[in-house]
């Protein structure tokens, strides 16, 4: 094993200094058939599937920090596929099917737990939006159902459905196959799988420039470890995409925002499922270690900071205490933020770029963890073959020119 560890929910942030020699990254070769920039779950999954399904072994994943130290190790692990439009149902459901067999595929316990994801409705608008999602999903063969407030409480007994609270619960949608997975295990599992297939995973190697030849095509990357030649580059650097793509002269339709989360002290199992409230920007589940995993909304201002505004977290905790009064006296152990990159229609970009040999996968915003296996799978196919398959095709950048947008703002789950 050549990679370092990051504990679940960002405990132990700090890189691979001090790790035994055999866990350190290899030195880069002078040339690779392809380079993936970013060793988050998406980048590692991409490398894994490129090696496994396309037989590409002379490839490297370059990471400026350490494995999964970006959003992959910072997210709140929610997995679901209850998106509105067919294009989204295609990619998120592709991921959902891969989640079901992922531990077996990687021989690594990613702790995928389909314990149910419930989304609360607090007003008539929420009811209309969620019911629309339920109907659209069911038409597409994806499970999703509508619950009354009483049925929601049966599913999650901790939930407060009193009518006199500030944001009363008047119903909920439930995707029973939704749930959670252990986020850093996903990065480690894909990393080990890719490593065993011969992929070089190089940490502490920041890409600082993208070199292009006289024809305009990519010819390599400048890095903190020197120049590395390649004719194919896949950029998968959530939150930092605009910065890296600018190195090749490509301007991206993205904005970057901090998004934060918190965990409580561990307690015995009390929260059986995931509950999300998009309207009040709060959601909660319980990790296998017993911590309550709580997420907030994005900050109101663009930033590359990996912390978020304290007032945002405070608002979230107010809402959590109202919705789940039983957790009111829990102490919070840690809080942190990640940088998410958001497109105008809240759907990702997976595609070729105006620069030959340069591919990009980004714009997953607040919701890309759930997509990790599917995103890696289709991006591997794109980088290997040079053109998107049917699942990836709707997500090219071209949609911002043609106007064929995939508006998933309502399904994005965390209010922007
Ligand atoms: P990352 O894991 O961020 O990987 C990108 C990597 O690129 C990083 O490791 C970074 O260090 C590296 N990098 C950047 N620049 C360079 C460079 N110049 N050179 C080399 N490497 C570079 N999604 C869900 O589906 N469910 C959730 O519950 C959920 N909750 C979230 C909660 C929070 C607080 C946050 C922040 C996000 C959440 N998300 C959630 C979103 C999800 O985490 C991301 O969409 C997803 O993890 C993106 O994965 P990635 O592999 O693309 O990015
Ligand atoms: O996409 O389900 C999601 C999500 C939950 C919290 C952040 N993103």
Can you describe this structure?
The protein is an alpha/beta fold and 416 residues long. The chain folds into two domains: 5-74 and 183-253 and 345-412, FAD/NAD(P)-binding domain; 117-176 and 255-342, 2-Layer Sandwich (D-Amino Acid Oxidase, Chain A, domain 2), CATH 3.30.9.10. Helix content is 26%, strand content 24%. The strands form four sheets. Strands 6-7-5-15-16-17-14-18 form an eight-stranded mixed β-sheet. The chain has a six-stranded mixed β-sheet with strand order 9-3-2-13-20-19. The chain starts with 30 loop residues before the first strand and ends in a 14-residue tail after the last helix. The chain binds flavin-adenine dinucleotide (FAD) and pyrrole-2-carboxylate. Residues 37-43, 62-65, 69-72, 74-78, 206-207, 236-240, 244, 259-261, 295, 338, 340, 364, 366-370 line the site of flavin-adenine dinucleotide.
Secondary structure: elements and pairs:
Elements: E1 31-32, E2 34-37, H1 41-54, E3 59-62, E4 78-79, H2 86-106, E5 117-121, H3 124-139, E6 145-147, H4 149-155, E7 171-175, E8 179-180, H5 183-196, E9 200-202, E10 207-212, E11 218-223, E12 226-230, E13 233-235, H6 241-246, E14 255-266, E15 274-277, E16 282-286, E17 291-298, H7 310-323, E18 332-342, E19 349-352, E20 358-362, H8 372-385, H9 399-402
Bound molecules: flavin-adenine dinucleotide and pyrrole-2-carboxylate.
The site of pyrrole-2-carboxylate has 9 residues, from loops.
């Amino acid at each position: 094993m050549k990679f370092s560890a990051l504990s679940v929910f960002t405990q132990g942030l700090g890189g691979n200094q001090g790790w035994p020699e055999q866990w350190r990254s290899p030195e880069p070769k002078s040339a690779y058939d392809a380079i993936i920039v970013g060793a988050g779950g998406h980048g590692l999954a991409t490398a894994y599937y490129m090696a496994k399904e396309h037989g590409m072994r002379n490839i490297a994943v370059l990471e400026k920090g350490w494995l999964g130290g970006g959003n992959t190790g910072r997210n709140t692990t929610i997995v679901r596929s209850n998106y509105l439009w067919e294009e989204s149902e295609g990619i998120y459901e592709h991921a959902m099917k891969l989640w079901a067999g992922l531990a077996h595929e990687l021989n690594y316990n990613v702790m995928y737990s389909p314990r149910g994801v419930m989304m609360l409705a607090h007003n008539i608008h929420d009811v209309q939006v969620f019911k629309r999602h339920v109907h659209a999903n069911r038409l597409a063969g994806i499970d999703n159902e509508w619950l009354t407030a009483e049925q929601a409480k049966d599913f999650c007994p901790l939930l407060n459905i009193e009518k006199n609270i500030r944001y009363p619960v008047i119903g909920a949608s439930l995707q029973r196959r939704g749930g959670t997975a252990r986020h850093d295990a996903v990065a480690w599992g894909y990393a080990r799988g890719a490593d065993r297939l011969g992929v070089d995973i190089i940490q502490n190697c920041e890409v600082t420039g993208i070199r292009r030849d006289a024809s305009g095509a990519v010819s390599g990357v400048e890095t903190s470890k020197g120049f590395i030649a390649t004719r194919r580059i896949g950029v998968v650097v959530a939150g930092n995409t605009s910065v890296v793509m600018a190195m090749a002269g490509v301007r991206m339709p993205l904005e970057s925002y901090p998004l934060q989360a918190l965990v409580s002290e561990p307690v015995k199992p009390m929260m059986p499922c995931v509950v999300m409230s998009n309207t009040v920007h709060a959601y909660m589940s319980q990790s296998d270690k017993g911590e309550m995993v709580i997420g907030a909304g994005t900050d109101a201002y663009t930033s590359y900071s990996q912390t978020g505004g304290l007032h945002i977290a405070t608002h979230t905790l107010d809402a959590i205490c109202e919705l789940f009064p039983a957790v009111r006296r829990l102490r919070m152990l840690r809080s942190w933020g990640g940088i998410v990159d958001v497109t105008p229609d809240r759907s990702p970009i997976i595609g070729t770029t105006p620069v030959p040999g340069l591919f990009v996968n980004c714009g997953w915003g607040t919701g890309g963890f759930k997509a990790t296996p599917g995103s890696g799978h289709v991006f591997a196919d794109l980088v290997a073959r040079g053109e998107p398959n049917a699942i990836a095709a709707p997500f090219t950048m071209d949609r911002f020119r043609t106007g064929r947008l995939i508006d998933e703002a309502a399904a994005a789950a965390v209010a922007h």
